[in-house]
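Troubleshooting: if your tokenizer reports a length mismatch, compare against these two reference records.
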Amino acid sequence: MRILVATDFSPRSQRAVRRAGILAGQTGGDVMLMHVVDGAGTRQVARDVREAQRMTVEQAAVVPELFRVDCRSLVVPGRMPDALLDAAATRRIDMVVVGSSHGQDVQGLGRTVRGLIRAAPCPVLVVNRSVGGPYVEITVPVDLSDASARALRSVASLGLADHAHVSVVHAFEVLGKPKLSGFGIQREQIDSYVESWRSSFTEETDAFLEAEGFAGRDWTRRVEEGRPEEVISSLAARTGSELLVMGTRARTGFRRALLGSVTEAVLAAGGADVLVVPPPRPGLSGRPGRPGRPLSAGVERPAPQGVTA
């Protein structure tokens, strides 16, 4: 695996460098430390490039996770995230790793990181947590779309599942549930109604995993009621998940990816690290995608006893 990690020599980029070193060590991959000097064409920029080159070499020499990893440095003048995106594309990078800029703007996700995620040619790992070792618990939220299938395939192809326990979670919301108590429906009947929905979505999730070739994986399946972003954060907290893996969708008519409200909310919240998997770039081979569907759309669901349609 070829990993490109952005560094500005700050504590957050130090976390990213350490995580990149761990991942490269696990997969037999290599790491490229990249620093972008703002601007171009002046003597000051040229001096800054030389100084940054010295600092990247020193950084590689003092990070323990890089000691047994093939590590190189790349320092270029330019603008972020464009310079990083160009390097990722031209050097056929498998993963870009960046430190979280949580708290730098009102939405909790820095413009540079957001722009990188939207246009990246490969998965982007946003490192939020301090680095204590390899990932042990990984959570993959799925909405049964092609974006979710790509997230699952990346977990397998990048070797993440070789060293960690993987939980696949599907969140569902029950249509009409808030109104049921007002109709005089008993609590036991409402609970039974919710469980019938859970059973239906469990069958769909199992069928989805089988269709994508993951039925034989020793991965935990979870189907939980609630808003997706709330289910994801709650499950990550309960299981101690260190990494969330989420896919983005293609923006119709544009080459950039559409993050989606759930992915955006998870990224902005911080907490666990987040690996964002973009759609294939134009011109690359790939299977036809399935668009995401609204929860419960197109599927006949059971009605609670005592309520008629």
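Reference record two:
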Amino acid sequence: MATVTQNQARRGRGVVLDDHLPVDHRLRRVYRSGAGLMGAFLIMFGILGLIDRIGFFSTSGGMVMGLGGNGALSVASLLVGGLLLAGAVIGGNTASTVNITLGVAFLAAGFAGLAVLDTRFNVFAFHLQNVFFSFVTGLLLMTFGMYGRVSGSLPHDNPYWRSRHPRG
């Protein structure tokens, strides 16, 4: 039987996101601040939504900070805000990965919310403002997470370029 190379062994493990990324670099503040600001906003929205005592699965919901919502959306906002704040506290590549992942989730939630507007399946009581908020938040989180990490022409002093080209 042939010897398994290191690359073949790695392929068997599945996707590994952060193996090639530098652990500590100057862009960590961008990742942390983006996650922290969005997390704090979502936690504030969730707390105000729970204080308002809107029905938990009410499809009409109520307005909180200019956005439609209900108890379920408030709890979901608290959970996601907590994840973002945890990413901000941990920092570095974890904050970047959390930002990117939740950014994609916010975009998906925006499309899902748009699909169920004014139907009985609108369990988070989304309004059009929520859809726009989800799209903008998703794009901002993805931008914060990908800043300096994803580009076709990274400068040679970028820590991601250096980690991918150790002899360059």
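Descriptive notes for reference record two:
- Residues 1-17 have pLDDT under 50 and may be disordered.
- The longest helix spans residues 92-116.
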